[in-house]
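Our platform keeps sequence and structure together, in a single record for each protein. This encoding replaces a full spatial description with a residue-level series of whole-number codes. We quote a single record here, exactly as it is kept in our systems:
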Amino acid sequence: MVETTEAPSASEYIKHHLTHLASGEQHSLLDFSVIRWDTMAFSIACGLIVILLLRAAAKNATSGVPGRFQAAVEMLVELVEEQSSSIVHGNRTFIAPLALTVFCWVVVMNAIDLFPVDLFPRIAHMLGVEHLRPLPTADLNATLGMSVGVLILVLYYNFKIKGIGGFMHELVAAPFGTSKNPFFAVLLAIPNFLLNIIEFISKTVSLGMRLFGNMYAGELIFFLIALLGGAWAGFNTGSILAFIGHIVAGSVWAIFHILIVLLQAFIFMMLTLVYIGQAHEGH
């Protein structure tokens, strides 16, 4: 007899695609012992793609009539420079290239969601890998890691621009101000410090959660659309309608998702600039 395996149910299909290729199972909300190899591999690969593309644009740049690729990169650079100059008032030697890199990197990572949802997992399965989740920005670990990187830069510029004394004074003097009376100065310093710490934490969490939430939701919708195509059971009315729905919904959502891919990258870049710009300003 030939053994047959039943097709997975909808919940099993989605659960399989949401499972990471990891070094182990995560047992708590914060578990640094677990490494998600697929997130690491695809995020690094996307970063290398961005570096190679921007390097090629810089290397092949000409002062004459630019080609389409050079013109596109120049327009992107001008856009980022314009945004950074309007938000960050100071030395932007590092900040403008940072914003450009962040935007391009997030765009390339988000664009993985436009590939068929079964493509990379199917290739991985052929290579003997059971689980693979290729979209890095649908992993909260990746987006929060990026937002923590932004937090580190914000703290760095706060110390660099304002000095240790100036930044520490700002932490205890804003937003309620301070007083010449030592007693009232201490009373105001406590809520000021707590509110500033909460502000840094909330900015970091919201920056990572916003990107994660949008990409995770988009990924789930692609899974549901893929299930419509997998519902084919022969030439009958239900299967034909499901197939048509799969084609129409997939095409419409893919076109709309292109806007989400670009918009979320732009928002992440702009918030990065805003937070760094705030570090250049005093209360």
